[in-house]
Amino acid sequence: MTTLSTIPVPLPELTAPSVWPASAVTARGGDVSVGGVPLAELAERYGTPVYVLDEAEVRARAAAWRRALPDADVVYAAKAFLCRAMVDWMEQEGVGLDVCSAGELELAASRGFPADRIVLHGNAKSPRDLRTALRLGVGRIVIDSECEIARLAAHVPGPEAQQVMVRVLPGIAAGGHHKISTGAEGQKFGLSIAGGDAEDAVARILGQPRLELVGLHMHLGSQIASAEPYARGVRRVVAFMARIRDRYGVTLPELDAGGGFAVAQLPGEPAPSPAAYGRRINDALVRACAEFDLPLPRLTVEPGRSIVATAGVALYRVLAVKRTGGRVFAAVDGGMSDNPRPALYGARYTVRMVGRPSAAPMRATTVVGRHCEAGDVLAESVELPEDLRPGDVLAVPASGAYQVSMASGYNLTGRPPVVAVAGGRSRLLVRRETFEDHRGRDVGL
Ligand SMILES: *Cc1c(COP(=O)(O)O)cnc(C)c1O
């Protein structure tokens, strides 16, 4: 019999913008289900920690970006999270891939992802990165320093030229944290427009017959919760395109506005929709091109987090509950080895107990990992029931981006598995890292 308390209802956090996938609903017995599968069941079946990825949410976010900018190329920033299924989903949704290593490239190639829809980035591309990119025939290589221009040109097999872009620094500070702010002067990425480095690189590339300069690229940073920095950046890049036309007689046909579109990490945080970002960026591009009398270049955007973050939910089991120094700590079976973001940039999360009902009052609890660092904190002072105990399952939404992809081997705990949910079913995408995996790499004495 269905009682009121077992009728699935959207989670209370589901006021836009939400930190949960759209499919998240309350389920029987104090649980939450995602993609039609109860989270506690997934914790039981696959063990913890485990990362759950809602396939429909990933696809819907990718599709929303395509709808937001129908005339642009949408390129998924693979470093947010990549596995073979993800490569297939992006291919099927008509989205390209932005990669920054031979490894990411090889994974995409292993699924037959069309190489001409791949963009290779990197401030320090290794010989192997460049060789792999040229062998597979990636569509665009984004130049990030002068010294890679001649090196790349020397390896282009020809007769066709390799299409390249130049990553320019529009000189705009934006983003959620200085460690993820990449559009301002004085950090390691890009070539300064103001300082003349960008123009030097353009001149050098134009002098290389094996390279074809097709456009300019900017990437302002990450967790940029307003479209305004993009609008300003696009105008500066278009102004620079006009200067290139005036000085070199070349009209560049493409502009890549990068990624960095914010998602809500906490309920109610600002996170413009892809449509809102798209409108503002497109509008700025049209205006700037009119101002500088340039034809509209083809636009590219590179959302990473925006496509995958809210599709992911991390599940942990509580190992210990401790009250000390006037605070309550809940220690779980994962931590900074699967999610370094709180320690790296002070990222914040909500946490919810799943899998059993509790009528206990809520209290501020700090959720910490199991690793040997006092900074191994997953979520500071979140509301959890007072009767939280070892064995309970905790769910951390908005965990799809830059967690599994940044996971480490710290303490040899083993990187967690990734499980896809769709239509009431689950399947393993990436298995858990085992002790044998570690032992197998340890080959000398
Ligand atoms: C990291 C990165 C992105 C994606 O950033 P998100 O914050 O995940 O959207 C896009 N382009 C480049 C060049 C990047 O380095």
Written account of the structure:
InterPro entries: Ala_racemase/Decarboxylase_C (IPR009006), DAP_deCOOHase_LysA (IPR002986), De-COase2_N (IPR022644), De-COase2_pyr-phos_BS (IPR022653), Orn/DAP/Arg_de-COase (IPR000183), PLP-binding_barrel (IPR029066). The active site is at residue 372. Keywords: Amino-acid biosynthesis, Decarboxylase, Lyase, Lysine biosynthesis, Pyridoxal phosphate. Belongs to the Orn/Lys/Arg decarboxylase class-II family. LysA subfamily. Homodimer. This protein is of the alpha/beta class. The chain folds into two domains: 4-54 and 312-440, Beta Barrel (Lyase, Ornithine Decarboxylase, Chain A, domain 1), CATH 2.40.37.10; 56-309, TIM Barrel. Helices cover 28% and strands 24% of the residues. The chain contains twelve helices and 21 strands. The strands form three sheets. Strands 4, 14, 15, 16, 17, 18, 19, 20 and 21 form a nine-stranded mixed beta sheet that branches. Helix 5 links the parallel strand 7 (118-120) and strand 8. Helix 4 (102-110) packs parallel to helix 5 (127-136). The radius of gyration is 23 Å and the shape is globular. The termini are far apart. The model is unreliable at 1-5 (pLDDT under 50). Bound molecules: pyridoxal-5'-phosphate (PLP). Pyridoxal-5'-phosphate is lined by residues 77, 79-80, 98, 121, 219, 222, 258-261, 302-306, 401. Pyridoxal-5'-phosphate binds next to helix 10.
